[in-house]
Amino acid sequence: MAEITLKSLAHTYLSDPKSPEDYAIREMNHVWHQGGAYALLGPSGCGKSTLLNIISGLLEPSSGDVLFDGERVNALPPEGRNIAQVFQFPVIYDTMTVYDNLAFPLRNVKTPEARVHERVMEVADVLELTAQLKRKAKNLTADEKQKVSMGRGLVRDDVSAILFDEPLTVIDPQLKWKLRRKLKEIHQRFEITMVYVTHDQLEASTFADKIAVMYEGQVVQFGTPRELFETPNHTFVGYFIGSPGMNFFDVSFRDGRVLADETELSVGPGVRRAIEGARSTNVKLGIRPEFVEVHEAPVEGGMEAVVEHAQDLGTYSIVYLRLGDTPLKARIEEDQAVPVGRAYLRFPDERLGLYVDEFRVEIDHE
Ligand code: ADP
Ligand code: MG
Questions:
Q1: Among 171, 167, 38, 184, which Cα is nearest to 91's?
Q2: Domain covering 4-232 assigned CATH 3.40.640.10 in the classification
Q3: Residue ranges per domain, the chain?
Q4: Global pTM value
Q5: Which region among 59-68, 174-183, 233-242 has the lowest average model confidence (pLDDT)?
Q6: Cβ(344)–Cβ(304) below 8 Å
Q7: What are the residues whose beta carbon lies below 5 Å from ligand 2 (ion)?
Q8: What separation in Å is there between the alpha carbon of 95 and the centre of ligand 2?
Q9: Residues with Cβ within 6 A of ligand 1?
Q10: Does 243-361 carry CATH code 3.30.930.20?
Q11: pLDDT tens, 36-88?
Q12: Atom of ligand 1 nearest to the CA of 52
């Protein structure tokens, strides 16, 4: 069991890196606490697998340190790190039985055979592989093979951490949901640090207590699903989390007014002052579709918008609007009528986020 600290870590696959874009991992500091259930969430190519492989020791970082419980482990090979890793595609021995595949990681560290049996039976039970134990791995379906591969990652209870790299990609959707629940159960039972890599926000939030959102080789936010939803730290988190993602407006301050292109936005004095004081030309206001107030008739402080169309999703609708030249989306619940033609919008001040150079800055509403 261990706390995993990444200190000034950076990695490039190039021999002569010149700019930040040449780095798969841009300098980062991060701590995975002992016993946590974590997700590492981000789009394809953002550096998730690179980061896991550095933690497990398959890859040596270009610079910086990996610490387990404060001890630098950079020089330790994967076998010396006591970490289990489950990959996207099954890693199993085809000619061995399912039982022997599951037993392998335990026998490898000279576990007494009685204990091997106990653990194999336990893990097989959790993953519903008991009926397959005597079969040769090569005769299994793709789903079953990946379950065996996961079982091999779960079978040792003395590891420092278990790293999962998009382990459910090849698994059928129904079974996926079930296995994710199982992993959560296993985590609760054994309290092993788990880092679960995925590009799927739903998968991340059903598994993890805390999610690290990764973008262009950096962790841009580390928080609970609720924090990522309510206060995204970076515009990317706003876009990526939520369905649909957050609305953003490029804003400027002119003649005492807050403008999105040439359209004046109706915002409170705190927001106005913050935009006036921003020292950058890259200033955005963000608001989640859930928090946009939509009215059918003019209201005090309401901004007139064009209703382009609406998508009825049963218990709620997504309304596609245009405020001046800027498109935006609003989510309204089923008990509210979808406006036709025009709508009047309000942005509650406390729901607005201000982003300068893509990062969120505090707004003083006093
Ligand atoms: P993810 O797992 O988030 O999809 P990766 O860590 O696999 O991302 O990749 C991060 C970046 O590093 C990508 O730009 C990818 O093309 C590059 N990359 C990954 N592996 C290698 C490699 N072995 N050699 C060169 N570039 C690589
Ligand atoms: Mg990957």
A1: 167
A2: no
A3: 4-232, 243-361
A4: 0.93
A5: 174-183
A6: yes
A7: 49
A8: 27
A9: 13, 24, 42, 44-50
A10: no
A11: 999 999 999 999 999 999 999 999 999 999 999 999 999 999 989 999 999 99
A12: 6
